[in-house]
Write a structure and sequence with these properties.
Elements lengths: L1 E5 L1 H8 L7 E5 L3 H6 L3 E2 L6 E3 L6 E4 L2 E4 L7 E4 L6 H6 L9 E2 L5 E2 L4 H7 L1 E2 L11 H13 L5 E2 L1 H12 L8 H12 L4 H10 L2 H5 L12 H11 L4 H12 L3 H11 L3 H13 L9 H10 L6 H18 L5 H13 L4 H6 L3 H22 L5
Parallel strand pairs: 2-5, 10-11
Antiparallel strand pairs: 1-2, 1-8, 3-4, 4-5, 6-7, 8-9
Helix pairs in contact: 5-7, 5-8, 8-10, 10-11, 11-13, 11-15, 12-13, 13-15, 15-16
Length: about 375
């Protein structure tokens, strides 16, 4: 039995990047031997185990052969006869197919170091084409490593194009697509995720609702990277994508339904798409208050603040000389400061209470605008 560090930890170590998790491969062992040493198996039939103390993943060296569609359509062989080279051959990219022995020796049978130096994302073997999820994984790695100069090898891009043309993306579940998409949004250059998918034709299959110009990179992809450079969170990047793409609310709703996008992402993007065309202007108080009411800013202030964050970065990106986000923050703060307690003490209830509270808010905005009128 031999245990080796494998995969992403070695890649990141060689690139000088932080190593967040370490995975291990165990060669020459059986599942029974792993369990006897206290390792906890992940699933009944899958040869991955958790260390009894650290919780790190230890996987038996294995091979995989596709027998059917989907991620469950693989026949897995994991027994003591499977070599380390066999295990590394089934991995997606050469930069992820390296191992380090306990004595520090680096084992690199498929040229991972070479491709790290050349800044190339290259598939290990033709077995890459058995799993369509790898198309999205390559795009995600591009989103992470593009700032370091990485690009997809021409032969890998050609293989991905053939996989798309063969209709293999249809095998992926909505949850798996969303999981890769969400991870890509968190990377340093999320726009590169879509660049890679467009280059192999996957964009037209996965997101036909988005605008994909023929000759130049669309604004929304530049804005995604602009958001990332300002450390905006993934939900803000997602909302910014749709805001900058200027798609319809109904088109976004189709995407949300198709990929079961979580509410914390979908709601913010939906708010951005609905609110941007309705942004108030000028010194009339009612449109500003109505905007806050229609966007549910008073009942859901945290979501509205996130929208204002996206809007503020968008204004900076476009060079907008009329900062509506700053004005809206001032208006929201003034309206939030209006207390309803005096009205409650008068005994008002129901519609009359609501009308009176709204008038108090309008009066507050009127006084604010007289002192500092918003830009037209």
């Amino acid at each position: 039995m031999e245990t080796l560090l494998v995969g992403g930890a070695i890649r990141d170590e060689l690139l000088g990047l932080p190593v967040h998790e370490r995975d291990y491969v165990v060669v020459g062992a059986t599942a029974a031997e792993m369990r006897a040493q206290g390792y906890r198996q992940v699933g009944r039939d899958f040869p991955v185990f958790l260390h009894p103390r650290s919780g790190a993943e230890y996987a038996l060296a294995r091979t995989e052969r596709k027998r059917g569609q989907g991620h469950r359509g693989f026949e897995v062989q994991a027994d003591p006869t499977v070599t380390l080279e066999d295990d590394l051959r089934r991995r997606d990219l050469t930069i992820n197919a390296m191992a380090r022995a306990s004595d520090g020796t680096l084992i690199d049978p498929y040229g991972g170091q070479r491709d790290l130096a050349a800044r190339v994302l290259r598939h290990v073997s033709p077995a890459f084409s058995e799993d369509p999820l790898r198309i999205l994984r390559v795009a995600r790695f591009a989103a992470r490593l593009a700032p370091l100069g990485f690009s997809v090898a021409p032969e890998t891009r050609a293989l991905m194009t053939d996989m798309v043309a063969a209709g293999m993306l249809a095998e992926l579940s909505p949850e798996r697509i969303w999981r890769e998409w969400e991870k890509a949004l968190e990377q340093a250059a999320p726009g590169a995720f879509f660049d890679v998918l467009e280059a192999c034709g996957a964009h037209a299959v996965l997101w036909p609702e988005l605008p994909w110009p023929d000759k130049e990179r669309p604004v929304w992809r530049h804005f995604l990277d602009f958001l990332a450079a300002r450390a905006a969170g993934a939900p803000l990047r997602y909302a910014g994508l749709w805001l900058a793409a200027e798609v319809s609310v109904s088109a976004h709703t189709r995407v949300v339904s198709r990929y079961r996008v979580p509410a914390r992402f979908a709601d913010l993007a939906d708010l951005a798409l609905r609110a941007l065309p309705a942004l108030p202007a000028g010194g009339a108080t009612d449109p500003w208050l109505s905007f806050l009411e229609q966007t549910d800013a008073l009942r859901r202030p945290a979501r509205f603040e996130e929208f204002l964050d996206v809007l503020s970065i968008w204004e900076h990106f476009t060079g907008d000389l009329v900062p509506r986000s700053m004005q809206l923050r001032t208006v929201l703060k003034a309206v939030q400061a209006v207390s309803s307690e005096p009205l409650r003490q008068t005994g008002l209830t129901g519609p009359e209470f609501g009308r009176s509270l709204r008038q108090m808010r309008l009066n507050t905005l009127q006084a604010l605008f007289e002192h500092s009128p918003p830009a037209p």
